[in-house]
Amino acid sequence: MFYSSKDLKFQLFEHIKVNDLCELPYFDAHSQETFEMVLDAADKIAVHQLRPLLTAMDRQEPQLTAEGIKVHPGMKKIIQTFGADGWINATFSFEEGGQQLPNTMHMAAGFIFQAANYSSSVYPFLTTGAANLIRTFGSQELIDKFTPNMYSGQWQGTMALTEPDAGSSLSDLSTTAYPTDHEGVFKIKGQKIYISCGDHDACENIIHLMLARIQGAPAGVKGISLFVVPKINIVTGLPNDVRTEGVYHKMGYKGAPIAHLMMGSEDLCEGYLVGEAHKGLSYMFQMMNEARVGVGMNAAAIATAAYYSSLTYAKERPQGRKVGEKDPYNPQVPIIEHADVKRMLLFQKAITEGSLSLLLYCSKLGDLAHAGTGETKANAALLLDLLTPIAKSYPSEMGCLSTSAAVQVLGGAGYTTDFPVEQYYREARIHPIHEGTTGIHGMDLLGRKLVMQDGKAVQLLMAEMLQSIAKAKSLSEIEVLGNAFEKYLQKAQVVTGHVLQKASKNPEVYLSDATLYLEFLGILVIAWRWLEQGLDAVKQLQKSSEDWDFYQGKLMAMEYFFEYELVKTSSLEKRLFSEKTTTITMKPNWF
Prior knowledge:
Blueprint: H1 5-15, H2 32-50, H3 54-59, E1 63-65, E2 68-70, H4 74-84, H5 103-116, H6 118-137, H7 140-151, E3 155-160, E4 176-179, E5 185-196, E6 205-214, E7 224-230, E8 242-247, E9 258-263, E10 270-273, H8 280-316, H9 339-371, H10 374-410, H11 421-428, H12 438-449, H13 456-473, H14 479-505, H15 507-512, H16 514-543, H17 548-565, H18 569-577, H19 582-585
Parallel strand pairs: 3-6, 4-6
Antiparallel strand pairs: 1-2, 4-5, 5-9, 5-10, 6-7, 7-10, 8-9
Helix pairs in contact: 1-9, 2-5, 5-6, 5-8, 5-9, 6-7, 6-8, 8-9, 8-10, 8-11, 9-10, 9-16, 9-17, 10-11, 10-12, 10-13, 10-16, 12-16, 13-14, 13-16, 14-16, 14-18, 16-17, 16-18
């Protein structure tokens, strides 16, 4: 068992109420029945195609040969399945051959795939993001030339941003596009590193959505443009002078290749301008923002798989006896009977299910921002903007700790390759780095998201939280937690006001603890999502005693989060009020 179908359906249908989306005209062809069919189809692919290759893809990592990067031979069939079954363009319109599936359901299906085998899930959804950029900003000619074969899985899509001297600081990228005699066609010269699925033999062509600076363009981010750069020239069928210089050998998620690419070594690399010149970064941010919530989901999925692996082990592994039982002739008990093991399992459950709640909530906000109208649409977009740094960073950072707890539950066995938790532990570590480091997202939250539209997004979030508090205080079962959360929210408002005051005094001081504020607000947001899950669990228990264990488990995980995790905001609060500037005062030569 690598995820809980029961919990996923609870989250979707009882908790965030995804069926509400079917009332919007864009999604009205769907119903709970079609949504459940999507989940069942995803489960079948995950169980029968992805999961069996989990270990093999880790052990047989991609290798660079004279012909390019070779990946596990099973990936070709998997990508073909995703293309043939319509997963790559499922969220796109009927007119484009898509299914107008809510992104919430696409993300839920992705969660299943990622929990089954993260490496294999990366390939098709990278193509989704790249194709989406072309269909959104590209000319009809580019759409017709590239997207059909991307949708079918014949061609792989990538996002090519990072360079040796331009990682998070994209304003410093140096890859250059030189105009040619053909309008919209440029010669590309430069290099890109850490390009996920940047080269492999499971598809016929690799289509890079690449950032470059047109010759003579302004310095900084204003001079960046976006190009489609195929590995194989789609007109001539010849190599497009995109050379794979190397493949990175990673600590985890080894089944998906990460390439180092050189473009234009022979002055033959052609790229096609997407949209208008010098607007490339704003275009790319569409894919990056979608990908950031996706990275959070990846992290939650891996941590979920680790949780269920450790839960299964804890139920089966006999060790020791309960405290107070001294008779050595009594049988040993499964380790799940021990309080400290239950603590580690509750920690994982609280992190993974709390994260999943937030991620699906954000996905629904994205659907409302896309297909909603009026104030609902505008408010959903604002809330999503505010929550995206948290949705990316909290599951990523805490997913590392959660998978570590899974290893700890297994003890020495968890440190061996006999069990998959060691692989999950390695694979979890990429997510605090992918799509912007945690520090970048902390600065994004403080530097942009809190203050946009004069703080309207924060006001919307606080209003949502106050509604949850009012509901919780009306139910005797969780009234105490509703009151407790209200006090934490009041403290958070004071902390936020204090932090914002620093902005006008000293921007460096203001941003120096941005990561800590991100952590602070992240814990508060996940506590809110647990309060919301608690509300739904109580309602279900009031209706029926069926599935009592499941809903009682929800209430205990909520209680655990409040008792063990939410209290951590108190120490963060103390730090955020401190006037000490240790990290600024420290000099490089003092280390």
